[in-house]
């Protein structure tokens, strides 16, 4: 297991052409390339697939895992337009292209935070590509709140959201990777992260230019992901028609699905004791066990 933790994944790309613009989605490919993909795992807003290497690499001894970089993140080369976004239909459609590229049996579809919600939205459109779903603290507000977020009035208020304002203030350029590591270590969302995971995040989270290192996910794009909330995860939960296991944080969760959601008998919800929204980083064993159990 320790050797697997150090495994470097292969890097592949999947072509994407939809109404949001054409390009290539970068994908990390863990495990035996001769076997079909067992698990697709999608990262959270502002991060990238490589962030989760220490979570996913230990699974590669038994499973083949694809971990894509969403539009505007990591190594994916896809156009971004923060202005006018209302929801995550762009991420949904990009992931549909990824699911359409799978040529084996249905796979487990999973993700963290925004990635969990985005893969849920895609699975609702391609349920035949999913065997089941594992959602790690997905962004799903209450049904009432989600309906309010779809009102046009919310578009004018979105920039007042603390997460949006925080993202827009985020430092976007560093002199070196070492400077970025020092700036993030033990602070904010990165508090308590293992150094190895933070280094993995920065490996694909920074783009080298002639004189500096810039965030691969521009602050304006990260902010637009927080602001664009007009998608419908509750409708997707109803339509997907596959077993869905939700693990939500005990503290600061972005998931407001109750333990026994009305009208959704295929959805199970568990709370990760002492877990925060970043439990996949801080309690990787809990997240990894859930992914493995779903795929075997």
From TrEMBL:
<dbReference type="InterPro" id="IPR000073">
    <property type="entry name" value="AB_hydrolase_1"/>
</dbReference>
<dbReference type="InterPro" id="IPR050228">
    <property type="entry name" value="Carboxylesterase_BioH"/>
</dbReference>
<dbReference type="Pfam" id="PF12697">
    <property type="entry name" value="Abhydrolase_6"/>
</dbReference>
<protein>
    <submittedName>
        <fullName>Pimeloyl-ACP methyl ester carboxylesterase</fullName>
    </submittedName>
</protein>
<dbReference type="InterPro" id="IPR029058">
    <property type="entry name" value="AB_hydrolase_fold"/>
</dbReference>
<feature type="domain" description="AB hydrolase-1">
    <location>
        <begin position="39"/>
        <end position="286"/>
    </location>
</feature>
